[in-house]
Recover the amino acids of this structure.
């Protein structure tokens, strides 16, 4: 059974789930446990190095993922870099989602407001 571990701060859309199932034969999506999700979503910007900070997330992957599983990694650039490199040492396939952005303009009370709608396109391997 192939799994996709979720290291990002959003909820997968139906389009993303379907793409992962069809493209990678994903059978199970594994979110981070609540305490690890909080760590991932709130990486302190003042930290000079992230290796110690990310250690609990690395341990979670090491204990739960197996060679050939996927990891969706998006978020803090430094955190992504660290986790992509780590995931590869475990034989995991690190991916990120690509999107198209459709901008819509509306006039509201005499002011022009722009709205961006993002649509999933595909997953790209790091």
């Amino acid at each position: 059974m192939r799994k996709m571990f979720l290291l990002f701060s959003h909820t997968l859309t139906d389009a993303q789930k379907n793409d992962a199932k069809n493209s990678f034969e994903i059978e199970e999506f594994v979110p981070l446990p609540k305490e690890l999700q909080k760590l991932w979503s709130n990486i302190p910007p003042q930290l000079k190095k992230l290796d110690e900070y990310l250690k609990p997330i690395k341990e979670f992957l090491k204990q739960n993922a197996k060679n050939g599983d996927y990891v969706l990694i998006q978020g803090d650039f430094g955190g992504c870099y660290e986790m992509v490199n780590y995931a590869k040492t475990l034989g995991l396939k690190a991916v990120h989602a690509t999107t198209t952005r459709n901008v819509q303009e509306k006039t509201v009370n005499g002011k022009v407001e722009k709205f961006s709608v993002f649509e999933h396109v595909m997953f790209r391997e790091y």
The longest strand covers residues 93-108. DSSP finds four helices and five strands in the chain.
